[in-house]
Amino acid sequence: MQWSSVPGLASLLDLLCPARCAFCGAEDATGRPPVCVACARVLSAGSARCTGCGEPRHDGRCRRGYRGDGIVVLSDYVDEVRTAVLRAKRPSGESLAAGLGTLLATKHRDVLAGWRLDTVVPVPMHWLRRMGRGTSAADEIAAGVARALAVPRRRLLRRGRRTPRQNEVPAEGRAANVRGAFRRRGDGAGRRILLVDDVCTTGATLAECRRILVEAGAAAVYAAVIARADGRLPDDHDPP
Ligand SMILES: [Zn+2]
Ligand SMILES: [Zn+2]
Predict the structure, then answer these.
(1) CA atoms within 13 A on the CB side of 53
(2) Predicted TM-score of the model (pTM)
(3) Looking at the DSSP assignment, which residues form a beta bridge with residue 153?
(4) For the domain 48-228, what is the CATH code?
(5) CA of 73 to the centre of ligand 2 (A)
């Protein structure tokens, strides 16, 4: 029996430990953490973007940006979203990261359903870096997305080598920086995969991950990111 099915117990638990928004800390009357309704609205209010390439919406065919089967973006890498992403990377940011994942999946529910996904794959962080931080935002975001889509999350990729952080590398050098950085660690053959990361700028990391998964026989590789940073990458951005 679930505790929520016991009459009165759910509301008693709410009284004892009220649900708090993982972003603003406010008590959430709806009892639907991790992010309150007001924050959900703010964090999801990004510009409309092409689900082919992730660039601001344009007419006709995709010309720029990430070239995969498709990409959905929760918001732009500015203001509260940037604050939320940076906080989600901290060891204490797991529930916020998962909450952002839920918002991402909710905002694009119809598009994601149309992609007929069967696997959610986080962009991996090198184990050394992960050990130092104790968490990986991409992993937790992927968990939130996977739960919302009712699709399993599988870590089908790993980092084969440490690379300089993408924000330490000029935009034109980023593809070379991550080339060969990833390895397969599971069977992706025939799968329809959603790659998940926190922030995408040039798309080089997603493209390299996609290349490995396609080589492994994936049927399709889509992508989902919390934020798309346009133009110059802010100095505080620190991809895995
Ligand atoms: Zn809030
Ligand atoms: Zn496009």
Answers:
(1) 15
(2) 0.85
(3) 120
(4) 3.40.50.2020
(5) 12
